[in-house]
Specification:
By secondary structure, the protein is of the alpha/beta class. About 30% of the residues lie in helices and about 30% in strands.
């Protein structure tokens, strides 16, 4: 576990990273190093005794679960896919999208008899008649529409979540709660 008093935060690279850096900026943190990171993956927030580790979504969960990082910002979709032992302490409200069931436009997915096949990670599968429908992450639905697909049912809403290592929550409780409260006050 990250033994020193600094708080180490794992951020999912990409859109959640940008949204979180924006939140840190609203909180009054100096985010210069985060914005000018180059290829570095471990960055400091000056004056806050905080380090930021940039990682793939699944790695954020691993780093928090194993104690390499105290806190993580990751999408609910990754939490649902990977699970783990940590505390999910807050819905940060950004990175909103949803898991949805989609099928070829006009297809009666629930009608008829027989077993239906549902694919994931293959948005063209229903068009190729490999599957009757797909479950995928949908933000605006544009990609589905462009491929002749339509959402027929929302499965679960997705957004960025704040997760905390179980041991860090005990050893660094006061600092983590202060940071969490400050984050939530800026949303």
């Amino acid at each position: 576990m990250n033994g020193n008093k600094a708080i180490r935060i794992a951020l999912t690279k990409g859109r959640l990273e940008k949204d979180t850096v924006g939140l840190f900026e609203k909180m009054g943190f100096d985010v210069t190093e985060l914005k000018e990171k180059g290829r570095r993956l471990i960055l400091n927030i000056p004056g806050e005794n905080m380090e930021v580790v940039l990682a793939k979504a699944a790695d954020v969960i691993t780093y928090v679960e194993l104690g390499a990082c105290d806190i993580g910002v990751v999408g609910k979709d990754t939490i649902l896919e990977h699970g783990g032992k940590y505390f999910e302490v807050a819905d940060l409200g950004f990175g909103r999208c949803r898991f949805a069931l989609a099928t070829k436009k006009g297809l009666d997915f629930y009608g008829g008899v027989g077993v239906k096949t549902v694919a994931t990670k293959y948005p063209k599968a229903p068009l190729l008649k490999i599957a009757d429908g797909i479950v995928d992450i949908v933000e605006t639905g544009t990609t589905l529409k462009e491929n002749g697909l339509a959402v027929i049912e929302d499965v679960v809403p997705i957004s960025a979540r704040l997760i905390v290592n179980t041991v860090s929550m005990k050893l660094k409780k006061e600092r983590i709660e202060q940071l969490t409260d400050l984050m939530l006050s800026q949303l």
